[in-house]
């Protein structure tokens, strides 16, 4: 997959540069990457909150890819 901009490339190599953008009333904080614009949330303890994927088809595809990768790693270790 090709990065669409130079900003996304720097995030892929070095990681995101999150900046606190706003605080929710539920004590969760919204963080936004100042390079690529990716938004994530943290809870009151500072742990990242996993965002839910809306499409069931995407979730099943990601699950299938995970299991294929797990099966491949087992094959490599056993040989």
Strands, helices and their partners?
Blueprint (H helix, E strand, L loop, with lengths): L5 H9 L3 E6 L5 E5 L5 E4 L5 E2 L6 H23 L1
Antiparallel strand pairs: 1-2, 2-3, 3-4
Describe, in plain words, how this protein is organized in 3D:
- With 79 residues, the chain is α+β, with helices and mostly antiparallel strands.
- The protein has one domain.
- The protein has two helices and four strands.
- The protein has helices at residues 6-14, 56-78, and strands at 18-23, 29-33, 39-42, 48-49.
- A hairpin with a 5-residue loop joins strand 3 (39-42) and strand 4 (48-49).
Short summary of the structure?
The protein is α+β, with helices and mostly antiparallel strands and 79 residues long. 41% of the residues lie in helices and 22% in strands.
Keywords:
2 helices, extended, 22% strand, 4-stranded antiparallel β-sheet, 41% helix, 79 residues, alpha+beta, 4 strands
Termini distance?
A: 30 Å
Q: How does the overall form come out from the CA principal axes? A: extended
The strand order across the widest sheet is 1-2-3-4
Helix content: 40-55%
Q: Structural class from helices and strands? A: alpha+beta
* Number of separate structural domains: 1
Identify low-pLDDT runs. none
- Main sheet characteristics: 4 strands, antiparallel
Number of strands: 4
Number of distinct helices: 2
Mean pLDDT: 76
Helix-strand sequence: HEEEEH
What proportion strand?
15-25%
């Amino acid at each position: 997959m090709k990065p669409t901009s130079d900003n996304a490339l720097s995030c892929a190599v070095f990681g995101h540069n999150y900046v606190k953008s706003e605080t929710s009333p539920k004590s969760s904080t919204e963080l936004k990457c100042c390079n690529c614009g990716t938004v994530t949330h943290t809870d009151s303890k500072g742990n990242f909150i996993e965002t839910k994927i809306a499409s069931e088809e995407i979730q099943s595809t990601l699950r299938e890819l995970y299991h294929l990768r797990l099966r491949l790693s087992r094959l490599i270790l056993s040989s």
